[in-house]
Structure formats: C-alpha cells, structure tokens
Specification:
By secondary structure, this protein is mainly alpha-helical. Helix content is 78%, strand content 0%. The chain has one domain. The chain has helices at residues 2-13, 17-42, 48-70, 80-101, 106-113, 116-127, 134-148, 160-179, 187-208, 215-241, 244-247, 253-266, 272-303. The chain is globular, with a radius of gyration of 20 Å.
Length: 304
C-alpha cells in the first residue's frame, strides 16, 4: 500500500502550497455544508441538543486514536480558562446555527453566518481600540444590510431563523477577537476541548429532549460527526500550507455547496432577494479583507 501511495503523495506535494491550501479549503467547506445539511435533516425527528451532543460525543471517539498517538500530554495547557470560554462560545454559536437551519434554507443560513468578519471589524474597534478607515466602515454597514434581503417579507416582524444565524455570527466573531489575546496552541488541543466541552454542555438538554434514534438516525449522526471533524482538520491544514490572503476567499465556496446540497436534499432554491443579500455580504467581506491587507502594506511601507 505504501508503494502505491508514494507517487500520489509525491504528486500532491509537488503542487504549489497555495493550490494545496485551496483544495483543503474546498474539502473543508463541502464537508461542513454537508454536515449542516444532515443536521437540518435530523432536526425533523430529534432536538438540536440531541444532535449536537451525539455529534460531539462521536467526534471525541474519532479523535481518541489521534490523541493517544500524540500522547495525553498534548492536551496539557496553561490556559484552561481560555479554552473553556472559547469552546463554550463556539458551541453556543454552533447550536444557534442548528436552530437557524430548522427555520431557514440551508444557503440562506450559511450566507448570514458570513457576517462574522463584519462583526470582527465592529468588535475590534469597540474592544481592541483598532482604527478602521471610512471605506471599511462603510463596507461593513453595507454588508450588514445584505441580511435584510434574506429575511422573509411575510410572517412575524422578527424572523427567529435569521436572528439566530446573525447571533451565531456575532458569538463566533467574539471568539475570533478573543483568540488575538492568546498565543497559538496545538490545533488538536482546541479541537478536543471544543468537542469535550460541547458534549458536556449539551448532555442535560439532550437527555431532557431525548428521542430514541433509529438505526438510520445513528448512521446519519455518525456521518455528521465524521464530516464535521474532518472539516475542522481540513481547515487547519489549509491555512497551515497556504497564505491566508489566497486561501481565505475560497471559504465562500461553502455558500455554493450549501445552495447545491439544499436544492438536492430539501428542494430549496434561493430567491432573487436571497441571492442579492448573499452577494452583498460576500462582496463586502471580501472588500474589507483586501482593503485591510492594502492598508497594512501601506502602513508598513510608511514605517520604513
């Protein structure tokens, strides 16, 4: 087997790092879109808390061999409080996404969660004292307006699905801002603590709302956990081998995968306003990223 894989490995490593990063990102986005779709499907028969708990528990079992291979010491940390806070907020963000998926089309919920970079801009100004140019501030405001196009015009004044997706983006943006205060630790440490704390968090509500899964349900739950766990690994690999400025924009392929999977599994097709709203959000977040990189290069040149 090793002899057969060597040419494949050599061909893979011969690719430019950014190309490999882009491929990893495409695997990351497709797997997460599929995992969200399966969670949406399972939510028809069981609570989102049960789905989350079983997913995290299964993911921990899948991660166990990796931890044993690396050694238990790889989980030791001098920042346990940081891990608890980060994992708790990340899991709150995830359960909000699950709630949104029960009330919205898969592509629409996915698009709204792309407001995370816009929230990061706001939070960085409020809590980190960062200065933002008027161009980025305007782009951020326009980006948020895209959400309005994705809220149904009929029904209740407050759409709980869209509000939940937006809240998820805000919570996860808070996590991203918090990470700036801490030096990086091994990715496996973040992943294991994330799943362990998630399983603990969602055990009580899962027990309270438990519905005995069928064999098909268990198969889908295992597949959901596998897809989500693999996706996290692919995402880490993508940014490890490729440049963020090159690899990052490929994350928006998740919206395309969500639209295709939503159509195939749930006969969902975004309307014109939904597509317009998604386009506004994506365009503004991409503009902000490019503008931030340009301003950073300009500032660096000025320092010299």
């Amino acid at each position: 087997m090793g002899a057969l894989l060597r040419p494949v490995t050599a061909a893979w490593l011969s690719l430019p790092p950014n190309t490999r990063g882009a491929i990893w990102i495409l695997l990351y986005t497709s797997n997460f879109a599929a995992a969200d779709a399966l969670a949406k499907l399972l939510a028809k028969d069981m609570s989102i808390y049960q789905i989350a708990f079983v997913r995290y528990a299964i993911s921990l079992l899948l991660l166990a061999p990796v931890v044993l291979h690396l050694g238990i010491d790889t989980l030791r940390t001098t920042r346990p409080v940081m891990h608890v806070i980060r994992a708790t907020l990340s899991n709150v963000s995830q359960i909000l996404v699950y709630f949104a998926l029960t009330r919205m089309a898969l592509a629409d919920a996915t698009a709204i969660t792309f407001t995370r970079p816009l929230f990061v801009v706001v939070l960085a100004v409020l809590f980190l004292g960062e200065r933002v140019s008027w161009r980025r501030a305007l782009a951020t405001a326009i980006g948020f307006s895209g959400v309005l196009f994705m809220v149904p015009t009929s029904g209740p004044a407050i759409d709980l699905g869209a509000l939940s997706a937006l809240a998820s983006a805000l919570v996860f943006a808070t996590v991203l801002v918090m990470v700036r205060f801490y030096s990086s630790e091994p990715p496996i440490r973040f992943i294991v603590y994330y799943h362990a704390i998630g399983a603990i968090m969602f055990l009580p509500p899962a027990v309270a709302t438990w519905t005995e899964p069928t064999a098909d349900h268990y198969a889908l739950l295992v597949l959901t956990a596998m897809l989500a766990t693999c996706a996290q690994t692919y995402g880490i690999r993508a940014y490890h081998v490729g440049m963020s400025s090159v690899v990052g924009p490929f994350e928006y392929s998740r919206l395309l995968f969500a639209a295709v999977i939503g159509y195939l599994m749930f006969a969902e097709f975004p309307d014109a306003l939904g597509i317009l709203g998604a386009a506004i959000i994506v365009a503004c977040t991409l503009y902000n990223a490019r503008r931030q990189a340009y301003e950073a290069r300009k500032a660096g040149a000025g320092d010299r």
